[in-house]
Design brief:
Elements: E1 6-9, E2 14-17, E3 25-30, H1 41-59, E4 63-68, H2 86-94, H3 98-115, H4 131-143, E5 147-150, E6 153-156, H5 158-164, H6 175-182, E7 197-202, E8 218-220, H7 224-234, E9 238-244, H8 248-263, E10 268-274, E11 277-279, E12 282-283, H9 294-299, H10 311-319, E13 327-328, H11 331-350, H12 364-379, H13 384-402, H14 410-427, H15 437-460, H16 464-476, E14 479-484, E15 487-492
Parallel strand pairs: 3-4, 3-9, 9-10, 11-13
Antiparallel strand pairs: 1-2, 5-6, 6-7, 7-8, 11-12, 14-15
Helix pairs in contact: 1-10, 2-3, 4-7, 4-8, 10-11, 11-13, 12-13, 12-14, 15-16
Length: 495
Amino acid sequence: MDHSLFIYNTLSRSKELFRPLNEGHVGMYVCGPTVYGDAHLGHARPAITFDLVFRYLKHLGYKVRYVRNITDVGHLEHDADEGEDKIAKKAKLEQLEPMEVAQHYTNRFHEAMAALGCLPPSIEPHATGHIIEQEALVRQILDAGYAYESNGSVYFDVEKYNKDHKYGILSGRNLEDVINASRQLDGVGEKRNQVDFALWKKAQPEHIMRWPSPWGDGFPGWHCECTAMGRKYLGQQFDIHGGGMDLVFPHHECEIAQAVASQGKPMVKYWMHNNMITINGQKMGKSLGNFITLSQFFTGDHEKLDQAYSPMTIRFFILQAHYRSTVDFSNEALQASQKGLERLMEAFAQIERVEPTEGGALTEAYAEELKQKCYEALDDDFNSPIVISHLFDACRTINQLVDRKQTITPSGLEALRQTLNVFVHDILGLRTEAQGGSQREEAFSAAVDMLLELRAKAKAAKDWATSDAIRDRLAELGFEVKDTKEGATWRLAKN
């Protein structure tokens, strides 16, 4: 943990040296999905982004408690305080119990995350399992004078809070202008101001999901769950809160207000936000109807897809861009990622075919330099594309070693192998997708080597027909064979 890790904090709009609240321990909360449909590419980005953060913090030696919620109640259409609950609406359409819908899509989400190589969080709390905690949060805010009851619902009083504190510190919005403008609107209804947000909503007769409360039957407002569950599992203050950039306002802004109003102090030290996945410049989302599900990517079953893309291709595609940059979907970009991943994983496999020499030009110092470059990139706000560029440099060196155009000592080779394993597998979370794993790869390599030995014997016996036939057949199967002074080498030909 002797690293100087810098994290971009949305709250300060700057990179800050990461110092956890409790030495050696990190508490991290990430907003999870609303489970009313299959996960799409937009869900993959925060999942992979914060999986990288989780993996790297653990690699540095921190004990990390990673909490990612499941929203299974309270998230109304258009992220508003009126309208139908997204899950209840889906349940009506499919004539199912709301919890059937939530469980089905939670299971599907878990399957997709496992395919993408995302580690499961330490705790995955459900909103419906924490109604008591959310009701307690509402009472605390009411007792502090920053909320009011109206017709069986409870709303957060943004104007009053803004006088004592500052609403808008995360998003940079000037609430005075918003509040003044809202007074001119008609149809404010139960709210004192249009900008006030629901802490507890009265359930209308047709509303399926409801719970008893001091204010009548109803359900919690969407923003309550993360404040209540984050505090329960990570304490009144914790280190990192993450999510997509689209959650900065209103969701995370409301979370900050709820925390300060209920406990008198902020709850989160570092706010992290990944940028959006876009299609033709527009955010990808279920509510916009322009999304492609992860299962559709894996099968290629969508009109916008030219082919199927493997889960590791999707992961690599996302890691090739810094998490705070926008990524625009295109088949060309995904195909380029597919080729890049194949190149990286091929080199990773080829290292097993490198023959070290005691007097090799490369030593352990080469692997150490590679390691330090990768650490520098990750310590600079988890800069995964720079890590990948360094790994590609290592790929070129491995290819030179395989072709016997470069040499490496035995200890240098082992250090290089360990360094690649740490950054490719342990931290970036990339893995080979060939069935059978490493044992299959070893058998595969041994079979090709055996054929080349037979070819070498044929050449020694001046049996040129057999030698050429083996080379030509390997070429047909996609292998590139090179004859050198030290003997033949091979690799899979690039498409």
